[in-house]
Amino acid sequence: MKILESKITSVTVFIDRAQITRVAKIELPKGENKVAFDKLPTAVEQKSIQVSGTGKAVLSDITFKKVFYNDYPEEQVGVLYNQLDEFKKTRTEIKDSIEVATKEKKFVDNITEKLTSSNGKEKSSPVLDPEQWIKMVDFYRQKNEKLSAELRTLNIKKSDLQKKIDKLNREIVQYGSNKEKTRNQVQVSLDNSEDVEITLELKYITYGASWYPYYDLRASTSIKKMNISYNAMISQRTGEDWDNIAVNISTAQVQISGKQPELTPWYVDVYQPPVTYSPKKKKRSMEMKKERSKISLSAKLDEFNDTDLDDMMPSPPPSIEIKQAKVETGATSVLFNIPGTNTIKSDNTPHKVSITIQELEADFTYGTVPKISQFAYLKTKVTNTTEFPFLPGETNIFLDGSFVANSEIKLVAPNQKFTTSLGVDEAMKVQYKLINKYEKDKGFMSKKTNIVFEYQIIITNNKKTNEKIIIFDQIPISQHDDIKVELNTPKYKEDTDDLKINKQKIIEWHKELDAGEKITIDFIFSVENPQNMRISGI
């Protein structure tokens, strides 16, 4: 049997697995031949294996095998031990150098401390002239800096060397515990009537690979557009590296079995509540039940033979089949062909590949709730005019070149609209003022109290473009027949394009401001209640 020299040429990555395509070329003599794709990943799904090819040969059999082998030849283990000894010798030399440098640094520190400190019990040190003193200080400082740098370098070398020693120790331990291993192999039998060169293609699904969507949204308020960079973050730990291969991304939920599932009967019946017994009654009931069961079974055995009894015994209703995965409602299966080639190592590190970059028309609108926050929040409404569905995923949001926030995007089908929040834009200034709060005179004989609230909302558009903004506020909702709330300003009869009020008494002013324009909105309402009634909420 010949082992094929195969190469991965393309990969289709699904949500939780990947389909690998391997290609091999080989020259075969006339007659029956057996070849094998070797060292396949441990997580290969056997039912997914497909083999095809080109050339004048007949494919007669495909077999999946687990082959036992020794992971390390004995001579390789000897090499590992020799490397380990060399590393340990080098580590000892580094430790000695660190010890010498540490002692020398301590010696220099002691001399410096002795020269710069005074002790009444010792004779005074000879007086140095300023020039000699400066030279001495410079010498010790330079010496200290040199020794400190040397110690840092030695400690880094020691740390790196220790990592290499730990790795060798793990490999040696692994050799001892897992000396005999298995590898997956697909064996292919071929019949050919003459010497021939053939190309074989092997496809299989393996677990340990996944991808998820990731987006960069870049909005420009000056040109009213949004640039969407649609990316896939791929990671894999299948056991084999993908080097310079064509990558496809699929949203499909893979089903290995080609057989259509079948429905089983779905039974409903009258609910029978469980009977609760006291311990004594329960014991007696169980004993009686056993006796009845013995008598009944004995009578049936006398009356029927084994075959008849099997036919008479009722079978329990089958349970409903539980599906292991669900496709999100509204989602469609899409295959993204990534241009060019990519290299993705089997180390589970996320690898970013670009699916598409699109520029879309955007409708920008500001919103503000000045009662709570005196800021204008920018939102953009965009229509997905591309052929790509935007799958749910994380986003980086940029506004006019500056990073705004991390967010998420929900499923957006082609031609569907979606809204993205772009954060605060301080170029749209918002002010909120309580102008007056007073009790309105209802007359001397009145037994009512009427409190008037006067607010003023000021919006200034400091941008160089015309902008739309929605201002939100509210009036109280009365929960008592004797409490009356009246909106005085603005005057409202019914919803218009500029003014709307919903059932929760939330008011919306829809305004469009020219560049540099400033508007003032007067907002006045009153609350009336009996004088002897104490109310809450205002």
Describe this entry's structure for a reader:
The chain is built from four helices and 25 strands. The longest helix has 48 residues, at 130-177. It starts with a strand and ends in an 8-residue tail after the last strand. Helix 1 runs antiparallel to helix 2. The protein has helices at residues 74-116, 130-177, 279-303, 306-312, and strands spanning 2-3, 7-13, 17-28, 31-40, 44-54, 58-70, 180-192, 196-207, 209-220, 225-236, 242-250, 335-337, 342-344, 351-369, 373-383, 393-399, 402-409, 417-424, 428-439, 448-461, 467-474, 484-489, 499-501, 506-513, 518-530. 23% of the residues lie in helices and 44% in strands. A hairpin with a 3-residue loop joins strand 2 and strand 3. The strands form four sheets. Strands 9, 10, 14, 15, 16, 17, 18, 21, 23 and 24 form a ten-stranded mixed beta sheet that branches. The chain has 538 residues and is an alpha+beta fold. Among the domains are: 2-71 and 181-207, no CATH class; 85-118 and 133-169; 231-252 and 331-360 and 385-412, no CATH class; 428-530, no CATH class. It is extended and about 115 Å long.
Integer-rounded radius of gyration: 41 Å
Largest sheet: 10 strands, mixed
* Average pLDDT score: 81
Which parts are unreliable, with pLDDT below 50 for 5 consecutive residues or more?
Answer: 290-332
Number of helices: 4
Q: Which strand-content bin applies to the residues?
A: 35-45%
The secondary-structure element order is EEEEEEHHEEEEEHHEEEEEEEEEEEEEE
Give the tally of β-strands. Answer: 25
Structural class: alpha+beta
N-to-C CA distance: 89 Å
Give the overall shape: extended
Helix fraction, binned, reads 10-25%
